[in-house]
Amino acid sequence: MIFVKENNVNKAWKIALEKLYKNGYIPQDSRFKKMDTLVIEMDDPELCEPDSSFPILKEDIAIINNFIITGENEDKVCHEWTKLYYHRLFDNPNPQIEYMIERIKKDRVGIACNWIKDDQKAEIKPCMLSITASNENGKLNFQLHSRACNMYDKLLMNLQEFITVQKYIASRCDLKIGRFTMFIDYAQIATKDITKVEDIISF
């Protein structure tokens, strides 16, 4: 297992890329060059303009960050998985996000699940499995569990969008931002991306 502790999202992305490249195992699936379980921990998560070497435009990430909590401009969202995340968290008649907020206010802990049985055979399989958020001494701690993540072209976007969700829940619960932790069962560097990853971590 690989562990990264860094508050800045851009630095966390690059450190995770480098550690997985150097220490990850070579999987049986030839589509991937390196793979391992990865945990990223941020005591005080810092959102900032995405690193220029990340392959998704900053304008597209801004659209994603807004969409994941508002549902606005879905036709402009470039990431199909984000659309799925939003609808499973926010859609009526029983929005999970509202129930989470209610439970955090009443019982301190709220949980949302993003996986259903039929996802196993679906074309768009959600990578994000669950969110657990809790009020810890007036701060909202946030744990995100993902089954998989492509480290080169997805991780930085995922950090951005789910820290945005953390901030949204914290504001709704009148809490400060606490620790953000992301657990990834299968952090992956795709074989097709290996040269690009090497260019990024060589600086």
Q: Residue-averaged pLDDT, rounded?
A: 97
Q: How would you describe the shape?
A: globular
- Strand content is 25-35%
SS content category: alpha/beta
Number of helices: 6
CATH class: Alpha Beta
DSSP, total strands = 6
Q: Provide the CATH superfamily.
A: Thymidylate synthase/dCMP hydroxymethylase domain
- What's the helical proportion of residues? 25-40%
Largest sheet: 6 strands, mixed
Question: How many structural domains does the protein architecture include?
Answer: 1
Poorly predicted ranges:
none
Please give the CATH architecture: 2-Layer Sandwich
Gyration radius (Cα, Å) is 17 Å
Description:
This protein is α/β, with parallel strands linked by helices. It has one domain (2-48, 55-201): 2-Layer Sandwich (Thymidylate Synthase, Chain A), CATH 3.30.572. The chain has 6 helices and 6 strands. It has helices at 9-23, 58-70, 80-90, 96-107, 155-172, 194-201, and strands at 2-5, 32-42, 109-113, 128-136, 139-150, 176-190. The chain has a 6-stranded mixed beta sheet. A hairpin with a 2-residue loop joins strand 4 (128-136) and strand 5 (139-150). Helix 1 packs across helix 6 (194-201). The two termini are 24 Å apart.
